[in-house]
Design a protein that fits this description.
244 residues; alpha/beta; six-stranded parallel sheet; 12 strands; 30% helix; 23% strand
């Protein structure tokens, strides 16, 4: 069964690894191409966009895809919506894999907001030295802020940047000790992050909790109405085998 895995996440790589080792599956993994040196999954990989719903629908049909697994980042709302629409138009089964979001714990000082614009509004009232850990996209939403920003990303952001900032290019995972040291050394008093979930980037939240820092937590965009969702690689693999 020829399957398209929309990836870029650890879950997508694990699904590709499992399926590539099983008879009866032909896997193509697709990456958006937003990271210059991505961690590649095993098997066939394509990089780049499809050209919206119509482009994806055409690609699925031309390449004989029989099932779609959307294991993109929880904030990749555009490709998720396109995958649901394109697959539905062709009558293809589609599954959305989303790791659980983070859960607020005792000692956390979270302020949940639905989007980047409201996150930028919230920052001004919470502190003057901000750790912005939202990836390279969306930084422009904070360009007009008077605060100082430590901006961490894998690749440099494009577009407008805050007037006062330091850019730190780094790829996780990071330890709690390293995150704590970073927050203390840069005298951070507020963190802005996305509710990506997962253990690989959770250390920053543990460090913020211990230091009593405010955290502006940006909520995930909703999945398309009626979307079939699972939270684990094991559940995704069970679903994929059932489609064969």
């Amino acid at each position: 069964m020829k399957t398209l895995i929309l990836g870029g996440t650890r879950e997508a790589r694990e699904i590709a690894d499992i399926a590539s080792g099983e008879r009866g599956f032909e896997i193509v993994s697709s990456l958006a191409g937003r990271v210059r040196e991505p961690v590649l999954p095993v098997g066939e990989v394509r990089v780049g966009g499809f050209g919206g719903v119509d482009g994806l629908r055409e690609w699925l049909a031309d390449n004989g895809i029989q099932a779609v697994v959307d294991a993109t980042h929880p904030f990749a709302g555009g490709i998720t919506a396109n995958a649901a629409a394109a697959a539905a138009s062709l009558g293809l089964p589609v599954l959305h894999v989303r790791r659980p979001g983070w859960v607020e714990q005792d000692g956390d000082r979270w302020i949940r907001v639905p989007d980047l614009a409201l996150a930028a509004e919230a920052v001004g009232a919470l502190g003057k030295r901000v750790f912005l850990t939202i990836g390279r996209q969306g930084v422009a939403a904070f360009a007009d802020s008077d605060a100082w920003f430590l901006i961490r990303a894998i690749d440099p952001p494009e577009g407008a940047m805050p007037g006062n900032h330091e850019l730190l290019l780094a790829r996780g995972p990071f330890s709690v000790e390293d995150e704590t040291a970073l927050l203390v050394e840069r005298e951070i008093d507020v963190m802005v992050t996305k509710d990506s979930g997962g253990v690989l980037t959770e250390a920053k939240l543990t460090a913020a909790r211990a230091l009593g820092l405010a955290v502006v937590m940006i909520d995930r965009p909703p999945l398309p109405e009626g979307a079939l969702q699972v939270e684990t690689v094991a559940a995704a693999w069970d679903w994929l085998r059932a489609q064969r």
